[in-house]
Amino acid sequence: MKQPLTAMALALAAALPAAAQPGVEVLHWWTAGGEAAALGLLKSNLEKQGIRWNDMPVAGGGGEAAMTAVRARVTSGNPPTAVQMLGFDILDWGRQGVVANLDDLAAREGWDKSVPAQVQKFSRHQGHWIAAPVNIHSTNWIWANRQVLERAGVAGEPASFDEFIAAAEKVRQAGFVAIAHGGQPWQEAIVFDSVALSTGGAGYYRRAFIEHDPQAIRSPTTRKVFQRMAQIRQLVDKDFSGRDWNVASGMVISGQAGFQIMGDWAKGEFLNAGKRPGQDFACYRFPGTQGMVSFSTDQFVMFRLEDAGKAAAQRKLASAIMEPGFQAAFNRVKGSAPARTDVPDTGFDDCGKKAIRDVAEAAGGNGMLGSIALGHATSASVKNAIYDVVTRHFNGQLDDARAVAELAAALAD
Question: Is 304 helix (H, G, I), strand (E, B) or coil?
């Protein structure tokens, strides 16, 4: 009888760790192929450490549906382990007192030194780490079809706004759409990010759109920003209204258009079409914003868990997110820069290498600023008010002076 009992005991011992295996519930909206594949790397890393992954995808690129889902979970007293969030949503949850404190892990792994202070603004509440940032997206990019530019006689990268407008005019005169654009409020705000930075520099952008200084908002610089937005409006095609951003990217990819002003996620459209950076397409900062980055950052907010085993698994999840190897692998797919400045650019393409260099330069020179368009400059309600003013001006419903006045009203505290 001893042998069967021993075999049974061994079987039970082997089964118990699996049954008691700690797990993490991760709520996110990354359901696209490349993003899901990148998250699969994180899942694999955790499973190697004996941590089960319970995937909770909620479709919707802006995360609104995900925020509805997490509110229901927290209200019921059963929060997920971690939730993907952006910008001021993170700070709002911090104020509600339901998030975990990651200070011990952050200190042990040197997050304070490796994550730019501008990103930490959204990773910490009252000085305490509550989230693990996974990337740094930026909006002030130009994407260009090199063959179209060559046929239009455009050589090199324009160094200033005026040079960019002149290059776009050449593209139009050559029979192409100068600037591919999707007429949606958030896309107009993407353009506004770049034009405001290019026109007034980092100091003006910070005073007007982050600090809401009335003098900066009502200054001649703001009027010039709207004048320049009107110049760009004259260089988009007549069918721009309502066009999705990736359709606009497709116009550049196919050779219908010369330029697109869009965030770094556009690179994925070019790569998926088999285009090569530096050969088929060019990527560079919006002229006049060199040395500056208008950014957003995806982060995983960790909620407070009472169960000690679940809390330990949560720490392993946060550590895996911040692990340099994962940050590199994920952001090579996502098109963004790693959230850590100590991740080498090995394996990144030319655009990715440039993004990493630009983030390091901007963070060190105080030129890294939260994107208006992506909700990292101001609260959601104010962001939407800016959207309204910018898009009405872009569509000819407001003149420059009226746009300045309405923007000042939208940003008034």
Answer: coil
407: amino acid identity, one letter: L
Q: Which of 171, 180, 205 is nearest to 261 (CA)?
A: 180
Q: What is the DSSP string of 53-70?
A: EEEEE---TTSHHHHHHH
| In 76-127, alpha helices (H) | 87-95, 103-109, 111-114, 117-123
> What contacts 177, CB < 8 A, 6 or more positions away?
171, 236, 237, 251, 256, 257, 258
pLDDT one-digit tens code per residue, 223-271: 999 999 999 999 999 999 999 999 999 999 999 999 999 999 999 899 9
Query: Distance between CA atoms of 283 and 46, rounded to whole angstroms?
Result: 35
From CA 32, how far away is CA 274, in angstroms rounded?
18
- Condensed to tens digits (0 to 9), the pLDDT of residues 259-310 reads 999 999 999 899 989 999 999 999 999 999 999 999 999 999 999 999 999 9
- Measure the N-to-C terminal CA separation of the chain; round to a whole number of Å: 80
CB 20 within 8 A of CB 26: no
| Sequence-ordered list of residues with C-beta below 8 angstroms from that of 98, at least 6 positions apart, any chain | 74, 79, 303, 304
